[in-house]
Amino acid sequence: MQDTDLIYTDIDRYLAEHERKDILRFLTCGSVDDGKSTLIGRLLHDVHAVHEDTLAATTRDSKSFGTQSGELDLALLVDGLKAEREQGITIDVAYRSFTTARRKFIIADTPGHEQFTRNMVTGASTSDLAVILIDARSGVVSQTRRHTVITSLLGIQHLIIAVNKMDLVGYSEARFDEIRGQYEAFARQLPSCQMEFVPVVATTGAFVVERSPTMQWYSSATLLELLEHAPVRNATDDGPFRFGVQWVNRPNLDFRGYAGTLASGSVRVGDTVVALPSHKASRVARIVTFDGDLDVAYPPLAITLTLEDEIDLSRGDMLVSKQTLPIVTKEFDATCVWMDDASPLVVGKEYLLKHGVHTTPVTLACVVSRLDIETLAHAAATTLHFNEIGEVSLLAAQPIAFDPYSVIRTTGAAILIDRWTNQTAGALMLRGATPPNARWTAKPRSGAMNVNPSVVTSEERRTRFGTLPRTLLFYGPHGGGKSRLARAVERALFDLGQIAVVLDAHAMRQGLSRDLGFSREDRSENLRRSMEVAKTLNDAGILVLAACSAPDAAVRDAARVLIGEAQFIGVHVDAPHSDDARACDAPQARDLKIGVLDLADEAALGRAVQAVLTTLAPRALQ
Amino acid sequence: MLRTLSHLRELEAESIFIFREVVASFERPVMLYSIGKDSSVLLQLARKAFFPAKPPFPLLHVDTTWKFQEMYKFRDEYAVKELGLDVRVHVNEEARAAGINPFDHGSRKYTDLTKTVGLKQALTAGKYDAAFGGARRDEEKSRAKERVFSFRDTQHRWEPRAQRPELWNIYNTQVNPGESIRVFPLSNWTELDVWQYIHLEKIPIVPLYFAAQRPIVMRHGVPIMVDDARMRLEPGEVPRMESVRFRTLGCYPLSGAIHSTATTLPEIIREMMIARMSERQGRVIDHDGSGSMEEKKKEGYF
Q: Which residue, A50, A144, A278, A351, is most buried by CB atoms nearer than 10 A?
């Protein structure tokens, strides 16, 4: 029952109670014929959120536009724009609100057909919960699966599955259970979230707001009851403190405040906070608001902070908790939904990234894969078209501070803006810094292609060359002599009548890798190219001695995978106390460790060569 | 620990975020000030957003010259004198010179010339690239799909197909020279939220919202207040003093009153909840046909 009685009897109490209500933002999704507009119309009508004259106009409209043979068509309460009314379908996200005794609701109503991904993603981005509508006659269809996948991608943790048109399946409990089973089987493939099922008849209102004797077998909550009791997650204030500086407030020389909205965590006067990207620390002096200073503030409050120290902070910078820092990087990966119907995503093109209140140019480095939202399979891709979803890597002009979207929604979301048209071209759910071995696992842009197999057998090659083809990776800090050792091994093998090819990272940089610098990613890429060449040579039966500093253990692991476990041998050559040595990960346990090599000592070099040959011997020199 | 903000505090925080985002991103923002209750709430939120600074933009009142006298008085005493804000008033002088008035030219033509055209003139003259307005999504069906940041071309036109998707609270603020954005910080508020907030925050509003004895004549079954000597009376017609109030304020000859004895905010809210009449019922403009607000918006009406 509504709280309208109080309006008559005790308006002051009504107002006091109304002040305490919270807001639940939810999304409704269904395909064209599921009766979604009717369901929302029914919800608004039955909670008395429709004004009398609107109802009168809708009753008139029902005679000319209605689909209920002249009876009141509740869908017309919510189908707004003339164009769509004439088409009989909705074409954009509409926001509507209503209030019950318990809380205020904001519905994002999204259409279920063309452009649906863009609209649904938009509606889902601000929602805590989604109502997924299923036509009881059709059960779980491909649209249902697509809608569910999108709510999952956007991080919605709570779903209500409303099985509508139960009257058209004879109010059958068996049918309801069957649909529930279908849906649960499908949803198991996605990250878990809370799911509730309710049978409804939008046209008559059964189990929307009111109960109904038509389904005696159903004794649980109505749709409205489920909505009223769903937990609201308006912010993650148990997370780490995150605050984007939105505007610097300087009304006079004595006041310098940083205005912004708490995105996560709480902040107290006296807290130590760190400014990003500068990493300078200070303490919170005041939490200023129009209604007086606060001792502590929580999301999503809009506040103004002053700090004890004068540190350089401008719009777009972030203040964060000292204990839990976000990721700060220029290179990052994201799930991208392409929203521009005029042009597809272009790799290498510069877009504007708007992340929270920070805007920076960003280059789309690569498309890793495209998601098939029917099958949940990731396929190789070189671009994303309108309404497509994929994994991408980006390179920003300035470092950005963020958390993975799956951890903190407010600091993990961003949009891409086309700099030519100013259109909002993409939605990004940030995943993390681009791992250094990302290129090692990327699918070929050109997709799978046929390669003619060799007509020379490996047995024939072995007979010809006298060795099993291996790749030895000599790695370690700069200046340790790994390249010199590789050359010495080449000499020793040659003297034994064996063929070996040396791939020196420095030589690579003169040719095949002349486009690369010395960033972590470029070093990884240089090694990847060496390893691709090594693999080709191995396939041709030839032993490879590669020399490369390869400081990242993860990258060396990627090299081992690329070459093949049986073919790959790591040889670690250390160097004394250089900065470069400290920047290197420890060698892998299974690798041959030469230690620090005294390059002036020929005998020591000879012993090292012998150690390598011995490692090789049981496999390569048999 | 998870805390939930009450809905009014959450709406307030959302609106403050929008105000700040515009001021940080645009060169010449302006706030459209209609003197009504929504403008009063908008003003309160703007004061909160930039405190301790004053709102760093002017207020623009597009004056049709037919507003209620109490509205002019409220504007000058509250916004200008008490708050010390920069209130700029624009009148479509061509329309004034041509004697355009609500009696002879019909509500549609009159509104177009004095409000829509006047607004465009003022926005162009001020080179404003962002204009705050008090529109809410609950006011009218076509507004349910309006963005918070509503894109306008160089002719101030709204094109439904050109509107940008709005995700999370990340607003695309990019515009080319001459283009602009209308911004609606109250998008997610309802009429009840607005009244409730006025009550909670004790925000000053024009006294016409409260019931009082006022000189009334009936037009098409709607009480119209005789606010000054320009009101055209039928031969022999004598205004009667009746207890009325207004749910929306505009030009007095076009603003229908309702009979009421509500003199406090709780009483007004009670009447509103019980009457269940749409807010715009008093505005003659929406009776032109069910798609009319949408067409007006395309032409640049706020």
A: A144
